[in-house]
Specification:
Distance between the termini: 30 Å
Structural class: alpha+beta
Helix content: 25-40%
Largest sheet: 5 strands, mixed
Number of helices: 4
Strand content: 25-35%
Number of strands: 5
CATH architecture: 2-Layer Sandwich
Strand order of the largest sheet: 1-5-4-3-2
CATH topology: YaeB-like fold
CATH class: Alpha Beta
Number of domains: 1
CATH superfamily: RelE-like
Order of helices and strands: EHHHEEEEH
């Protein structure tokens, strides 16, 4: 079964602007090859207030996403550098923007 993968518009408008084209392609390939096939197998569950989200490591980047099982859909909401906990602080700000 293939999962439908949707990138949030802020991923395209903000996150990808900070990532060079080569890395963007690697991230897109990983999303297509892993998240569209088995999002629960490849990503790891986050904890705390982000426990309903998962993360996928792609080299120096984290892809933060939500699995919507009832819709067979994966919603990518943030892509950021793996530096410290920066991507997790950014995801909290992103979620507030989305509300």
């Amino acid at each position: 079964m293939l999962w439908k993968v949707k990138l949030h518009r802020l991923v395209l408008e903000e996150d990808f602007k900070r990532i060079d084209k080569t890395q963007q392609l690697k991230i897109i390939r990983a999303i297509k090859s892993k998240l569209s096939k088995a999002p629960n197998k490849y990503g790891r569950q986050l904890s705390g207030q982000l426990s309903k989200y998962r993360r996928l490591r792609v080299e120096d980047y984290r892809v933060i996403y939500e699995v919507l099982k009832d819709k067979v859909k994966v919603h990518v909401i943030k892509i950021g550098i793996r530096r410290d906990f920066e991507v997790y602080r950014e995801i909290i700000r992103r979620l507030k923007k989305m509300s």
